[in-house]
């Protein structure tokens, strides 16, 4: 029927039809129509787990002056909306919100929701606590936060989410594709943000939907069907129906004015056909929702009901209520082959000069805090397991929750507002406080010998030093003149025996260190420099509200070792230091010493750093063992952040948009000092008034450690600055660099490390948190360490990234203290360090302190312990990334092969772990292999896996080797390169 | 418990309490607590029946880019919200929306809603189709629109609204208090907008709540308890809970951050106590809602649930779900005496220099259209009754509905956006089109003699001329040279016999007029002036889309009479006009005639207007019968509207804010022409290029009629203008003037008329629509006729009041053609004219035209008819303001006494109407006296009426005399001064 006629009828009715108005029933029963273009209406809301408001504020709907958003409304209103019509469907994603809401519901509502989930009307997808970032997150955190959500869903609803739904993160990683999608058993993965030029090309080629093989090592065994949305995750324009949205509603009441059914149907069909033009098969998905929508779900469903009714009446296309699962099944059912995607979707630019790479470094303090807590959580769960988990607490749950939330793509990414960043930190802090109690009581219990009758003695109070990074450790800053011993329990969360130099602040030079056998061991005192003390004092006042009571004079360094997944004990007591240390400071050698040469060589072991004497600058890296020798310069520069005055694209929390590079210039405060000793040498350099650097070279370690102190970045010139350090060599690298998630030739984020190589050497850098990095000049690496900006980059956060710290209302720019590690190896020999030492950086020794009189402790306590069989360690290529007692008393174990295929000639091979020896103290009843998020049996998951066809590949994909099934009698777990295997273990 | 402790507990819980979260049940059962301050939470939404969007757009939620508002959401969401907790309550007001929604509901929902209404959870108050304006509305329209809503509520729900709820109109009239509140049986009336200084005083004196006696004549018999809100009709600040509102929510979940129950309870108590300080008794009302709120009702109720729960737990005050009814009953139960209020609440200023008096004249064309349609609707219902109402149509329902909506306080008030004003006009036009069919078919049927056997002859096609005001009447602009007669049926909707001069445009001078007896009667031709033709042509093209086909040369005037509630027939045919008219134009005498005098005297009868010859200006008004003679000047001026540059208060749709007065100056186009004749004289004056005036003095009528044509008001000087006419005399009036709702000494609105008086004379002015008026200088009256402004006055409409009319995209300012009437009487003798002629202005003759051959019509048709007994007319002081057949076949009759006590020495007395003679053609079965809105028996209503005590009055109020009960056998209705009595009559 022509539109003209429709309108005429409508008008006529306004005039004359005495239409007896009646209740309109819409036909929403449509399913997939084989011969037609099917428009899958996927009703969804995207609820950031913190961004402009905190997660709790979003949940309860407070602080609406910042953003009108209340997730409680969404979930409250979705229930009656789904009940009103059983054809309606909705997906919900963020479990942090869902769990908050679930706890608030009556049993009756819970029962209803269970039915809605059962019937598929409400589908929980993605299913982690948040939609984690994919750049600044560590994969262990991604796994943990996903597991937390998935296991809740499994236990409450007996459901396993089928779909990855990473619609908002700012670029997409290979790890997300192969690990957090394929390995958790998802059937597909959907997202929106890819490079704008890539998107344009994919639209042209109809390759927005692909089969993505993210892992070279695991290949087709962990591929996933992955769809990029044509534009964003909103509905097509003019189809938004939140309360007060201004898209035209379907006015189908002929008794009222403005009847518009034909126009709206035409617009719907046009938008569907337009999308069909860039999509393979006759299925297109409309994402019907966006950020914090469905606050009154009825408003959306009322319009979708009408569209489905009238569009299907029209008949040109078929509209239906759908979900990504239904959509995926429909795609799969077409039996088509899809383009192959390898690699990742980084970096993300949404238009010219708008690379979302600034956030790889934004809020480096938060990024560092998250990484520290992540590691601590891993260790704490081991200790919680050893002691036995307490349901009523304290336990590690609140840290688990805080960490999970911190993985959100506006949390660790650094793209939230300041008050929200503070909220994430507060949650981590609260979680840490509780978890520290778990750790301390577990160690107290483990050190208490059961054979000795000291069960009546008071519970030991252990203390820990979270703020060692600012040289603050009250438990070690104690007066030992009364004959007390400072007991230091050194816990090693790794599955390997391990030795490392420990540094703790002490107030007295007359201290000696003894091992658990009572034997004094070598130690070294390093005078605490003024720069460190200044930071210590300022941040103590700022964050703890008090000036430190003691003032330590030295760092006491000694080399400690600990068994795998176990601890060792050291004792610090007052004592005369051995001869070499008698003359106080005689071991401290200042740079003025090396008079005869024009260079200064630093490092007590095989690795030496060579500095020019007159300029105090690093010029060479030497490893006398491997004979590697490379000219190396290291310097600091900063980019001036664009203020947006040219094209309204300023540099900001998301986007790195420099307009100039400046080398830092010494501003008269430059200094160069070397401290030498038996265990390590330190080079202290004041680069300028706001950059300080300590370079450490250890006797037994073949790398250099750079500890930088950057800040407060000055902004009194009105210019925001982004501070980088460059490491320059003569290597011919073709500007190519490699990160732990396959780098590109522009700014890239680094979660663990990066390296460059030429035909003979590899230069590797490892970091202590995620940072941005690049190789812009040949032979050079660049890390972005800190950013302080004065403009918003117009992607929603609406704040300049200008972090400050305040004392008595006087605020100054935030100072960042962090570390990175440098090593140069012969070509092909670097992976070992990157992988193994990378694991050590992630999981440092956990230290606990207590004071005891004389030798009482040594005589009555257990001084050394390993969770594993004393004769056993994990293979060098395997890490235990999860050991956790679950709610039901079973234990979750994850083992990860650390090497890719071909990465190392010895270690890129199948590994085996003897589970019985791992749990030497327990008797295993049953071991069940699970999906990565431990919400289903692995076998069951594999059975359900969809086998997608890949374009151009003739039939079978190359066979990927993975570890074989676990024989229940011998319990040996095989791990192929890059494989992670997850088990739930039941003990007798 | 101290707040400090609360917060501590909250914080502690975040850290440590392993609170098992559970579903929170709030205690909302609270009723009135006698010993406490009771905070009545009245959940409400205020839904304008058109303002920034049209009524239908507001209902369906379209056009949200203008304003996010969807009434469907409100009513959809309120049902589950009320079902969720039986203690929750809600009031709904605007029946235009409620009826739209009701028609859309399923039977199940309707049944649920009926139960909610039955239980009192959902209370329908006010209950008219809209919340009518109280300044620009005619009381008959107010009654009709209220009746429409009230009868729907009665028939669907068997409920009579108890409360007047005029919370938004811009000032409040006495008529609203005594007529539309007390006489419809309301127990109280609430509103928000009164003069800011009055409000301040009333807060001081705790006199926001009063007993209001609006009628001098009806006194305490129609008083009402009336409450002004302390500020507006919003909740106290920080207690707004629409989706996305930013008031702090009650965060009572100790597991989440920002727990704030103590703070919020304190704020609640503080706000309650603050209101208690300005309120008598221990009951305060919180209006929990505002414009278009409760789109997701749940968001409000969730917070109110919490407040009631925690505030009552706190115990300092008592919070409860309430309604204005419960609140009123609580106030009444205190048995306190209240301050007495007489008079009205006009004008309304919300701050200095912000008098909401502009809207008394804003959109004069719409105001005129509404008044014309109101009168037409009254007449049409009489004709519909005579013919018998058709349920399936055409009937008068759509006009009833359009008129009802047009009474909204942003409709006839002129304060809507232009597109919405167009919508009101469109609805009236559609209503008129259908109603015209009722009128035409009724007249066709009534003129058809039942005794003669012409039932087989074709149905007569009558035509009407709505556009006579622009000299456009195709049915009369016909060629009668072929011997056809133009039949003119003249219908008189008044209950009195009546004679009036009719003017119709004709194309030929050779026409004569015959009465129903075939006798030629006196007539007069007046040449149509160019000014009138120009308007006719321009507006025909603009509004009808075509240039008129014929061009009339003359107005044909003749005096017609018609019986009460009946018609008479006149015939116009080609014929030689009597001698006096032979010499064409000999009866037209131009001003040049009176050569010998320096004045020109105009008027064929007793009233003469005297003009100065040299200036062409009115100088004197003479009535030779009454010997009244008064010096009178009449002129035009305009105010320049303030542009807001000084204090951001521009003149606009709401507010009259002049910054200067200018007399209109002749711009070279001034002219002065007198047309004389036997029936009337016309003085044509071109005042300037955009003001034209025709003054008419009729032989048999003792007043002067001024027809003004104002516009397009020029704005090329960038200045908005507000055009007034002044009538100046030498009367000593102390600047006091009187309008039909008790005037004040500033700009006041006029619905019907106004007058001034000195010790011997009264000068009265009657108007054809509501206008603003004032008496600023002694002896002078001023009427505001038209406004064209260039700035918005910042009260929400966000448009300048700049009405234009466009032809082919070329727009110019809207021209207004209107009339006012002037008469000067001896003191004490003016009321008769004001009251009786006022009724004639409101209800002019309704004219219908048809063409017939020769004398066929006269021979075969009924030529004259009265609905009443031929011997009977209504008393001079009584008007029949409603005669309407109801849906059930019964008839609604309203009789109104037109005079106040003491207004006229003869007519301010008890009147009697013989109902049997009114319905001479019918046999009455039963007459039931009803409330004014006809939704309950009058006796039942009076029995329920609350008897409020008035402060200072010792016991009994003075006895008010009202008409006595109607004896069913004789059926005589007594009416005391100003009494309106409403009956439902059942016929055999």
Biggest contact: A-B, 56 and 56 residues
CATH topology of one domain in chain A: Beta-galactosidase, Chain A, domain 5
Shape of chain A: globular
Q: What class, by secondary structure content of chain A?
A: alpha+beta
Head-to-tail CA distance between termini of chain A: 75 Å
- Characterize the biggest β-sheet of chain A: 9 strands, antiparallel
User: What is the name of the CATH superfamily of one domain in chain A?
Assistant: Golgi alpha-mannosidase II, domain 4
How many DSSP helices of chain A? 20
CATH architectural arrangement of one domain in chain A:
Distorted Sandwich
> What share of the residues of chain A lie within helices?
10-25%
Q: Supply the CATH class of one domain in chain A.
A: Mainly Beta
What would you call the quaternary organization? homodimer
pLDDT < 50 stretches of chain A: 1-19, 580-594, 742-747
**What is the average of the pLDDT values of chain A?**
92
Approximate strand percentage of chain A: 25-35%
What is the CA-atom radius of gyration of chain A, in angstroms? 30 Å
Q: List how many beta strands of chain A DSSP finds.
A: 46
Question: Could you characterize the architecture of this molecule?
Answer:
The structure is a homodimer of 988-residue chains. Helix content of chain A is 24%, strand content 27%. The first copy, chain A, contains 20 helices and 46 strands. In chain A, the strands form 11 sheets. In chain A, strands 19, 20, 21, 22, 23, 28, 30, 33 and 34 form a 9-stranded antiparallel sheet that branches. In chain A, helix 9 (261-276) packs across helix 10 (297-314) and helix 12 (364-387) runs antiparallel to helix 13 (397-406). The first copy, chain A, is globular and about 100 Å long. Mean pLDDT of chain A is 92; it is low at 1-19, 580-594 and 742-747. The interface between A and B is large, with 56 and 56 residues.
């Amino acid at each position: 029927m022509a539109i003209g006629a429709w309108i005429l009828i409508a008008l006529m009715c306004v005039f004359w039809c005495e239409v007896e108005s009646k209740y309109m029933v819409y036909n929403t029963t449509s399913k997939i129509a084989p011969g037609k273009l099917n428009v899958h209406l996927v009703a969804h809301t995207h609820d950031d787990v913190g961004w402009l408001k905190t997660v709790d504020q979003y949940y309860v709907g407070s602080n609406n002056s910042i953003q009108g958003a209340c997730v409680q409304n969404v979930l409250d209103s979705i229930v009656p909306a789904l009940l009103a019509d059983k054809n309606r469907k909705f997906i919900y994603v963020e479990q942090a919100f869902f769990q908050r809401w679930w706890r608030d519901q009556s049993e009756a509502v819970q029962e209803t929701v269970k039915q809605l989930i059962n019937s598929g009307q409400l589908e929980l997808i993605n299913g982690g606590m948040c939609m984690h970032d994919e750049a600044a997150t560590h994969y262990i955190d991604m796994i943990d936060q996903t597991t937390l959500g998935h296991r809740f869903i499994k236990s409450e609803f007996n459901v396993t989410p089928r779909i990855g739904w990473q619609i908002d993160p700012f670029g997409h990683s290979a790890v997300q594709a192969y690990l957090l999608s394929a390995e958790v058993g998802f059937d597909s993965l959907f997202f929106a943000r890819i490079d704008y030029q890539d998107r344009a090309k994919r639209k042209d080629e109809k390759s927005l939907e692909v089969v993505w093989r993210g892992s070279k090592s695991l290949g087709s065994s962990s591929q996933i069907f992955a769809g990029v949305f044509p534009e964003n995750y909103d509905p097509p324009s003019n189809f938004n129906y939140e309360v007060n949205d201004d898209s035209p509603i379907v006015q189908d009441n002929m008794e009222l004015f403005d009847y518009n059914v034909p126009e709206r149907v035409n617009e719907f069909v046009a938008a569907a056909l337009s999308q069909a033009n860039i999509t393979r098969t006759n299925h297109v998905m409309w994402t019907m929702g966006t950020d914090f929508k469905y606050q009154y779900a009825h408003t959306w469903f009322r319009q979708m009901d009408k569209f489905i009714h009238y569009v299907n009446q029209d008949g040109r296309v078929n509209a239906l209520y759908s979900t990504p699962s239904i959509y995926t099944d429909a795609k799969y059912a077409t039996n088509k082959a899809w383009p192959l995607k390898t690699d990742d979707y980084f970096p993300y630019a949404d238009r010219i000069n708008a690379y979302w790479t600034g956030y790889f470094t934004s809020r480096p303090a938060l990024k560092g805090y998250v990484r520290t807590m992540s590691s601590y959580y891993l260790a704490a769960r081991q200790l919680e397991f050893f002691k036995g988990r307490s349901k009523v607490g304290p336990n590690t749950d609140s840290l688990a929750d805080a960490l999970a939330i911190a993985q959100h793509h506006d949390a660790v990414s650094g793209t939230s507002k300041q008050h929200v960043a503070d909220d994430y930190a507060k949650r981590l802090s609260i979680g840490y406080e509780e978890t520290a109690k778990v750790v301390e009581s577990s160690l107290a219990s483990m050190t208490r010998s059961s054979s000795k009758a000291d069960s009546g003695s008071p519970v030991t109070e252990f203390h820990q030093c979270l703020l060692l990074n600012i040289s603050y450790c009250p438990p070690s800053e104690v007066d030992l003149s009364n004959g007390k011993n400072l007991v230091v329990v050194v816990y090693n969360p790794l599955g390997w025996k391990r030795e490392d130099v420990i540094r703790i602040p002490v107030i007295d030079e007359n201290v000696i260190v003894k091992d658990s056998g009572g034997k004094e061991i070598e130690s070294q005192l390093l005078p605490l420099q003024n720069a460190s003390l200044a930071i210590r004092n300022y941040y103590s006042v700022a964050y703890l509200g008090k000036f430190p009571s003691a003032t330590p004079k030295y760092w006491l360094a000694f080399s400690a070792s600990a068994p795998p997944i176990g601890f060792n004990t050291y004792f610090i007591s007052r004592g005369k230091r051995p001869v070499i240390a008698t003359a106080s400071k005689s071991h401290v050698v200042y740079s003025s010493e090396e008079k005869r040469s024009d260079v200064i060589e630093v490092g007590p072991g095989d690795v030496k750093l060579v500095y020019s004497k007159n300029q105090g600058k690093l010029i060479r890296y030497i490893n006398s063992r491997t004979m590697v020798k490379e000219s190396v310069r290291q310097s600091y520069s900063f980019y001036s952040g664009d203020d947006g005055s040219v094209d309204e694209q300023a540099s900001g929390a998301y986007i790195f948009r420099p307009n100039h590079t400046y080398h830092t210039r010494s501003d008269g405060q430059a200094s160069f000092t070397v401290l030498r000793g038996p265990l390590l040498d330190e080079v202290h350099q004041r680069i300028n008034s706001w950059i300080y650097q300590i370079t450490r070279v250890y006797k037994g370690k073949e790398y250099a450690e750079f500890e930088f102190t950057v800040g407060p970045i000055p902004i009194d010139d009105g210019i925001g600055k982004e501070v980088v350090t460059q490491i320059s060599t003569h290597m011919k690298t073709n500007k190519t660099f490699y990160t732990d998630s396959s780098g590109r030739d522009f700014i890239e984020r680094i979660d663990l490390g990066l390296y460059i190589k030429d035909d003979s050497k590899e230069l590797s850098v490892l970091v202590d948190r995620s940072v941005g990095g690049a190789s812009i000049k040949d032979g050079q690496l660049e890390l972005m360490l800190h950013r302080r900006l004065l403009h918003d980059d117009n992607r929603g956060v609406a704040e300049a990234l200008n972090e400050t710290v305040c004392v008595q209302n006087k605020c100054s720019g935030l100072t960042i203290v962090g570390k990175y590690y440098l090593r140069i190896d012969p070509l092909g020999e670097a992976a070992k360090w990157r992988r193994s030492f990378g694991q050590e950086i992630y999981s440092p020794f956990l230290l606990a302190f207590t004071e005891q009189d004389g030798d009482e402790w040594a005589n009555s306590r257990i001084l050394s312990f390993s969770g594993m069989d004393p004769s056993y360690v994990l293979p060098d290529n395997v890490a235990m990334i999860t050991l956790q007692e679950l709610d039901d008393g079973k234990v979750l174990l994850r083992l990860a092969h650390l090497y890719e295929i071909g990465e190392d000639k010895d270690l890129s091979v199948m590994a085996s772990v003897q589970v019985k020896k791992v749990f030497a103290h327990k008797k295993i009843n049953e071991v069940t292999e699970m999906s990565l998020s431990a919400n289903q049996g692995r076998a069951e998951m594999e059975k359900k896996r969809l086998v997608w066809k890949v374009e151009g590949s003739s039939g079978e994909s190359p066979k990927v080797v993975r570890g074989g099934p676990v024989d229940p009698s011998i319990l040996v777990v095989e791990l192929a390169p890059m494989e992670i295997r997850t088990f739930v273990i039941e003990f007798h």
